[in-house]
Amino acid sequence: MSHQYTHLMRLTPNQLHNHVMKLDVPQEHREHIKATVLAQKAAMRSDQAQRTKVRAEWRPLLDGLRMERESLRSMRNYEKKQLVGDTLSPKLVAIEGYIMVLEKLREEFTNHIRNRQTPAVLARERKLPNGGIHWTDWVKDRHKQRVVALFGDIPPKQRTKIKLPFPRTFKAESNDRLRARLKTRTIKEHGIAVQSNQLNPTERSKAKLDKLTEALTRIDNLNPSEPVPRTWSGLFTSGEEA
Question: Is 132 buried (19+), middle (13-18) or exposed (0-12) by CB count in 10 A?
Answer without folding.
Answer: buried
